[in-house]
Amino acid sequence: MIYICRNPKDVLVSLWHFTKKLRYKNLPPLTLEDAFDLFCKGISYRGPVWDHVIGYYKTSLETPNKVSFLKYEDMKREPLGYLEIISEFMGTPFTLEEKKKGVAEEIVKLCSFDSISELEVNMTGIHQVNSNLEINNQLFFRKGQMGDWRNYLTMDMSQRLDQIMVEKFGPFGLNFEDL
Q: pTM to 2 decimals?
């Protein structure tokens, strides 16, 4: 299993945008401040992000041959290097010939945020969550940028999340750079 986590500040902003798009019309809008408060309290669709990330991080340390723990930001900075890490983890490292032919570079292009988000299925397809809920696939894509939280969170919000991350992730040596 390959687990990819992201800076929780960007997770919050993306989750807030996504949730606003899915919100029932008869409900009041979800403000960023309300979303922030819920996020800090660990109230979200899949539970506290902290527990989720730590659980997979610890599992990756205990069983590194079964779970690979990666950070989105690292992958964005060094896509070729992380593609090699992923291919080796999956037991299919690139051959010398594939490296010479630029196969890895082509895969990075094909798997880029822009390329994936512009696929027909992601622009027009529907994800059937259950018999009552369908989500347009395009809603799963926004910007894919690192550090976009800076355009939304106040300094106080950022500092509060920093404190929570130090408290929750610090004991495990896990940290996220402010990009």
A: 0.85
Paired tokens of 74: 């690292």
Tokens found for residue 40: 């800090």
What pLDDT, in 10s, does the model give residues 31-60?
Answer: 999 999 999 999 987 789 999 999 999 999
Distance from CA of residue 94 to its chain's centroid? 26
Q: Give the residue ranges of DSSP H helices in 23-126.
A: 32-40, 49-62, 72-77, 79-89, 96-101, 103-110, 113-117, 120-124
Are 147 and 10 in contact by the 8 Å Cβ rule? The answer is: yes
What token pair was written down for 127? Answer: 């994800």
Mean pLDDT across 163-171:
95
Report how far residue 55's alpha carbon sits from residue 58's, in angstroms, rounded to the nearest whole number.
5
At 56, give phi and psi (nearest 5°): -75, -35
CB–CB of 61/20 below 8 Å? no
